[in-house]
Each structure stands twice: as structure tokens, then as C-alpha cells.
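Side project, low priority. Logging it here so it doesn't get lost.
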Amino acid sequence: MTALRGPSWRAVLAPASADDTPIALGVQLRQRESADEAHWGPRRVAPATARSVETSTGDLRLAVRPLVRSSSSARWVAGDETWESLRRGAWRIDAARTRWFATLYGIAHDARLLGGFGDSEWLTLDGADSDLLWPHLRAAAELGIPIVATRPDQQVELGEAASVEVRVDAREGGLVLVTTVSVDGVAAAHARPLGHVGVYAIDRVGDVLRITFAPVPLGGGVRALLASGRPVGVPADEVDDFFREAYPRLTREATVVAATGVRLPPPERVSVVVAVEQNPRDELVYAISWHLPGVGAVAVSVERERDPERADLRGALERAWASASGEPFAPSGRRSGVDAAEFTTRVLPALEELDAVRVEVSGLRRAYRELAGDPRITVKTVETTDADWFELAVHVVVEGRRVPFRPLFTALAQGRKKMLLSDGAYFSLAHPALDRLRDLIEESRDLVEWETGARISRYHVQLWTDFEDLADESEPAVRWRRAADALRAAEPDGDGGAAALLPTGLATALRPYQRDGLGWLCALRDARLGGVLADDMGLGKTLQLLALLQHAREAGETRPALVVAPTSVVGAWRDEAARHAPALRVTIVDGSGRRFDDVDTDVVVTSYALLRLDAAAYADREWSSVVLDEAQYVKNPRSHVHRAALALRADVVFAATGTPLENSLTDLWAILSLTSPGLFPSARRFREEYVTPIEHGGVDENREGGAARERRLGRLRGRIRPFLLRRTKDVVAADLPPRQEQDIHVELSSGHRAVYERVLQRERRKVLGLLDDLDSQRFIVFRSLTLLRLLALAPALVDAGGPGLASSKLGALRDRLDAVIAEGHRALVFSQFTSYLDIVEADLRAHGVGVVRLDGSTTRRSAVIDAFRRGDDPVFLISLKAGGVGLTLTEADYVFLLDPWWNPAAEQQAIDRTHRIGQDRPVTVYRLIAAGTIEEKVVELQRRKARLFSAVFDADGAFSSALTADDIRALLS
């Protein structure tokens, strides 16, 4: 007989020996400290107590873990069985109870709340969102798994059922929503949601917390109220919105009752919701559903309804649908183009007329409307992105709606019956008035290629004028005018706009009104709009424009700017640029015949005479900006120099002049026609609309002081206000002395660089490998970034590179301090790291520089400050945390910032220790930045995401979710 191979049947089929090791499910109510309670430290997690639940605002969570019997005390204690050991299959209990714990783990862990507050030994139930939770918990008793509290000051019970009631109270004209949870008929003092499937109630019995959890379906609204943990207020001015938007949802999800003095709307009856999702490109998807009180939305099916109320409503739906569309009723579907418009304007209104039907539109909602009036043909000029070309925008105007020509041309060519406009209006193309358009196209076909977009060159001035005069309304720059209107609406009262970020390469501190002027210039440039800087003489128009050019260069502009000035002023531009913006490369054009195809410079300065002589050469080059200094030189639109300026190609044109109007309003029009083309109509229309009524009024109401003249003046002022800025000497007064800020990029020594690069590569590999799970690895990321920041300052701060490797910044700091002290000045030196201040202090003292110091360890703060004020020592070393605010040190007029600060507000506060009221000397600020290190990267990110760095690197260690993996990669790139 042949022997059988394989395992023995006994080994496979014999039952395993039962393991009766007692095991329980331990339940604990846990609480994390609030940010205020943490006092700048990490937010700790601890078991909740009767007192903490009443007094703390910290988050609550219901957590569970396996427990075993203590062999000595018979108490339930934490043993070897943990969730991690379950995952590894290392539990020493029978398979049935192991499966029970594994299933519970899956129910809660699928909500991705494992660990809750970062407690790896606990499984948080708050996010368990499965109805399987309750039968599973009840099955524990059958398996001999008790559900117990882990602490003597907590009790745990599993209730049968819960209910939720929302009481609406009146308070201060508004409402207060108070949510009450009852478990097995007993109201709870506190309650929190368990996903959307249950609640746990928290009651205080003496010093013991009784926690009872039970099933109850929770809608999103009720769950949100419970999760808030406190009454929710509705301000008086939002009561109507509450009853319209949230109240119906709450009545479906819970019992809503009114307190004394509150009147609630009647309960809902069965209704129909037509949900319309409006998508881009005029596409919509709709679905019709029943709205059942206390239940929610149920899709309307194709089959007939059995419920009488719903059957009657279904019949009304079908009749309204057929009358509006002529199509069979469909409870869901998709529409696009004109079909979407007709569905929106015909079917939806017909359904909305039914009492029990509500239409809800989400997405990019479109306001469609059918136009039934007679079309009216107009022709308008529109600027394009190419400054050398204009579009002849042919519109069909129907009931005030403008129709662009190219889509209309396509629709006519394709024989469509209707056309949908971009603004949602649609109309029939079968109209005799459109014959006029066909005639116009044929008459101008030899001048314009209509099929390719109706473009004409800007140099075809006569053709443009013909179309402009032909049009009922001239709009030479629709896009520009829209931006102008937006800028005008945002214009604040008073002189100037918001101040812009000062360019770092500007060597001269701007006065407040000059900063306002720079902000105004930058706002115009960002909108690709020009303007006239018409400040009084001597107020620094050149400085403000240089600041603008420096700002544009630092923002990434690579094309040169062109400055055109009188011959006598050209040299002054070179000198002023060297003084105020030395980083700008300035090229002076000193003769005719110059070409600019390959000019490698930041600013080209030429004269009006040379511009006129070499107009074609200047027009051939595309300039980033054009500045017309002393712009009264181009006030005559018929002059050659004006035409040469008009031919220049640039994103924006700015004019600088203290006399924008010398002889007539036409002077102003001529300048604005260069800087802001399209602000006014043609010269003929400007004379009719403004010059004649204002300057040559022939009737009483048009004379000076007359009502008509004042209306025209008001209209003119309103039109030019966003594009003309003028301040006089008697309205600007400097409250503070000027402040100069400069970034000093310090090159690391070869040894310092080698150590930094080695550590950078190591930390980069480590951090980049953690970015896929950034939320749980933020502390490690923070530690690595801090290490690199310290290493950029000094290798000794991180015990890298050996004791002889000095900080590269020390020499740069000492050199500048020597010059400052030699000239009798005094300086504040700030750093975030007291350990680096130790190194700086030792170095300065070793070189004979007297210092005083203020940091968190200073016990005699006033004495230290007084010592500096007495003038015994010229340098004051200050840590940011100890001296960033609350000091007035106008005795110093130099500030050194040794390391980049992630919070710009903190940096400005530090600088303001000396640059404040009472300071009578100019203040100079130096920022020392280690070149080629993380400091440069952080400065770049600081300007783009200023709030990000205060959240990541503040001393409290609170990490913001705004820090993305891409941000970390940028820091380490």
C-alpha cells in the first residue's frame, strides 16, 4: 500500500485548544489641551476628568484599547495585547475574540482616525461612521468581552437608543441653537457625535464621569451642532438666512422645538427638489428627487409612485414638463449649449411654479435669458494683447446684449437656428436685421479678413477712425476699461493708493507719500495700465519712478524700460539712478542712429529729440515700461515727437510732469492718450464732451459755476482720478526720518560651505522621504529645517565642522559695525537664536567692541537698557523674543538683522525699536543673509507666503497645515 504524502488530517482538522485568557475593551474619554492651555508648548493629551470637562475648551475624544486581567489585583490593565500586536497577529486569545477586535479596528480605522491625537495605543471611535458599530459592540457580551472604563473616575455604559432635540432660543434679537441628547430617555449634560451613526453622552456623578454611547442616525447639520460642543448663535441679521438654508435640514434630522417667544415655521411636507449642477461651457446635469421630511432626499424613479401624495405631485410635474419642453418627462439627464439655456429658462421656471417644487442650482450658475427684440448692429474697436493691433469687434446688440462677431459669423455660416452668448443670453438667428451685417462684411472684405478675426494694424489710423465714427458708441479698449473701472472702484479716499513692497535694491528710504506713490504706480502696472504722476516740483517724482523700475526688475522683469526726458535732464536720470537704485543698469543714449535689438541693460534713457529722430528704432523694440519725463513735451498730438511716443511698444506708459495742463484741456487729453489710451474717445469727441462745455461755454449753465459745466467737470475729474496722481508740497509732511533697508548676502567660507552642503544633502534625503506623510512627520521636518538655519549661521551651533570653523557672518557684521562706530553711530543687533548671540558677543568683545545684551535670561532688563542709553557701549545685542517689542531705542540709528525672520510683522517691530517717533536721524537697516543657503529660500517664500512661516517656525512649535510638501521641497532645493 502506497504511503500518502502531505500533512496529517489531525493536524489540519483537529480543533485548536481554547484559550480562555480574559480580555476586555477598555473605554476612556480623553481630552487634548486647548492652544491657550498649552502655554506655547505642545498640546498634551490626558484622560478627561469631571472638572476638565466642565472647565476646559480642549477637544474630547472617545478612545478604546484592549485590556487584560492583572494576575495580582484582578483589575483590568493594559497588557501585551495592543492594536499593533493585533496587526502583527501576535494575540494569545481565541480566534473568535481576535476577530471581534480586528473587526472593531477595521470599523474605526477605516475612518482614518487611528491614534486620534497621536496616541498610538488608542483607537478613536469618534469618526467610526459605520452602522455595523452597534451590533458589533452588542455582540461583545456573547463572546465574553466586557466593555469597561479604564479609570475609576469614569463609568461606561452601552445604551439602547438615543435621540436628539434642537431647541431654538431667542437672544439679543437673534437665535441660539441648544442641542440636547437623550440616551434611553435620560437627557445628558454633554454629548458628542460618533460619526453619523451615534452619540456618546457625558454626565457628571460627583467626581465620576458617566459615559453612555448609543446609536442614533445623525444628519450633517445635527452632527455639526453636536461637534461644536456648545450652543450655536444666529445673529439677528442672519435669522432669515438660517430659516431658509439650515432650518429645513435640521427639521429632517432631529426634533426642533421652540423656546418661549420663538416662532418656528411649520414642518415641511413632501416636496420635490430639482438639483441642477451647472458646469463650465454651458453644460448642466439635473436630477429630480423627493424631499421627505425626517428622511431626506430620495431619487424620483421612472416607475409610477404608489404613495397618493407623491403620485399627485408626480402628475403635476409631468404636465408642467410637457407644457414647457414638449418632451417626455425624464427624472434625470444632461443638457448643453442652447438646450441647457432653454431648459433653464423654460422647464425650470415651469417646475418652480408648482408649490411643492424647489430648484437648487450649484456650480457656476448661469443666468440664461431669451432675447426677443430686434437685433441692432454696431461696430466697436477693442485692444488686443498685441499692442500693435486692434480688433474690430462687430456686435449684434439685442435688448442691450452685445454679440461678438466671430461666434456669430460661425453660427451664421453653419446655419444654426439659435445662438447662445457668453453671458447666457440666446436669440434666434432668423431675423431680417442680420442682412445689414452681411452687407457690411461684403463692403469691407478688401480691408479686413473677417474669417480670421477682423484685425487691423494700429497704424491704419484712418480705417480705425472710420469705424470709430461709424459706431454708435466707441470702446477702443474694452479689457483696459474693465480694469480701469475696477481700479477706480478700489481707489481709496485721499492721495495715492496702498503702499507697495519696497524693492530691496532701493538705496534711498521713501517718505510716506512717496511710498503711496510707488504703491499707486505698482497697482497701475500690475493692471497693465498707465498713468500720470503729476506731483509738484521737488517732491521726488524721479525717485518714485526709479523705485517702480527697481520693483519691476526684482519681480522678474527682464526687458529694459525706456525713459524719455528733455536733453538737459538725461544726465540727471543717470545720477539719480546711481544714487537711489544702484542695482539698476542704466544706459544713456547720446547720439542718433542707435539700434536696440540686443541692448543688455535695465533702463535706457534717451531724449525727446533722439526719440523723434530715431522713432522707427525705438518702435522696433518692445519695452517693459515707458516713462515720459516732463511730459508736457508731448502735449501736441500733431507733433512728430508725440507720434513717435505713440508708436512705442510697451506694457505700460507713465508720464511725469508737474504741469499736466498748461494751455488747454487738450494738453491733458494728449498726455492721457499716450498713458491711458481708451480712457477718452477720439479728440473730436473729447472736444465736444469736455473742452467746449468747460472752456467755451456759451450759455449761462455752461459758464463758470454753471450747473452743466460743473457736471462736466465732475465727470472729467472722476474719469481721470485713478490715472492721475498729484500732491503739492503743502500737503505732504514727513512724520519720520527716512529709513534705508538693504539685504547683505554673505558668502560662506569654503570650509563653512563644505559643511553646509554635506549636511544639506543628508537632511534633504531624510526630509524628502517623509513628505508623503507630512502631517505625522512635521516635527522631524521642523527639526531638520532648524538645523539648516543654525548651520547657515555658524557650524559651531550644531557641532559641525570642528572648533576652528568660524561663522562667515561675523566678519561681515564686524566690518560694518567698525564703520558705523567710527562715524559715531550706534547699532541694534537682533537674532532669533541666543546661542548665536553668544558667538557674536564673544567675537565683538575679542575685537574691542563694547556691547550690552538683552535676551530671555536677562534679569535686570531696565538696567541693561539704561546702560545702552547712557552711551557706554555702541552695540546692543538683542534676542527677538526678548526685545522685538516694548522698547524705544532712538539712541541707535543702525539695525542689523542676523538671520531671516519668517514673520514680517515681527521683523518690522524690531526695526521700529529705533525707527519711531522721536528719531531725528535716518535709520539704516541691514539684513545679513547667508548666500546659497536655506535663508535665501525662506526669504523668497516669505514674500510669497508670509503667514506660512510664522505658523511653522514660531517658538510654540505649532505647525500649520498650510505648509505643503511643495513648500518644503522649495526650501531644500
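Brief comment: The chain has five domains: 23-158, 271-366, 370-476, 481-731, 741-972.
Revisit when time allows.
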